[in-house]
Amino acid sequence: MYYMITWGNTQIEEAYVGRHPEEVIEKARSFINQWPEYQELKTEELLGYLLEDNLEFDLVQIKDPWQGDLSLNKAIEVYEKHSIPPHMYADQI
Fold first, then answer.
1. Mean per-residue pLDDT for 13-19?
2. Are 33 and 25 in contact (CB under 8 A)?
3. What does the H/E/C string look like for the chain?
4. How many domains are contained in the chain?
5. pLDDT tens sequence across 17-45
6. Relative to the CA of 83, which of 8, 30, 61, 68 has its CA 20 to 30 Å away?
7. Strand 14-18 vs strand 58-62: parallel, antiparallel, or unpaired?
8. For residue 57, what are the contacts with CB-CB under 8 A and spacing of at least 6?
9. How far is CA 63 from CA 2, 17, 20, 21, in A?
10. What does each C-alpha distance from 15 to 8, 29, 79, 92 come to in angstroms?
11. By C-alpha distance, which of 54, 61, 65, 66 is closest to 89?
12. C-alpha dist (Å) from residue 82 to 25, 27, 53, 74
């Protein structure tokens, strides 16, 4: 099990993976910081917003063994087959 942050208008255009929610947020930080309103938020604050599904990005749990960093195509494939939305796991974090 691991976590993925995704972004895209009609399809996934960016994807980041990490073993823990905080790790994937840090990996995606340079991308997230493109939005000025998120630059000052701490990792924990971003995590709260992501778990509430209140941002432009999605944080999903992936119910599949850790595979390390993924290409965008592989991330999309894994997302489509194994993603769990925040409302189904947020109480576990």
1. 97
2. no
3. CEEEEEECCCCCCEEEEECCHHHHHHHHHHHHCCCHHHCCCCHHHHHHHHHCCCCCCEEEEECCCCCCCCCHHHHHHHHHHHEECHHHCHHHC
4. 1
5. 999 999 999 999 999 999 999 999 999 99
6. 30
7. unpaired
8. 5, 6, 7, 28, 32, 50
9. 7, 12, 13, 14
10. 9, 12, 9, 22
11. 61
12. 19, 20, 18, 12
Of the candidates 18, 1, 2, 9, which has an alpha carbon nearest to the alpha carbon of residue 57?
9
Cβ-contact 28, 35 below 8 angstroms: no
Tokens of 56: 């432009």
Owning domain of residue 23: 2-92
Whole-structure pTM value: 0.92
Q: How far apart are CA 33 and CA 84, in angstroms?
A: 25
Phi, psi of 3 (to 5 degrees): -125, 155
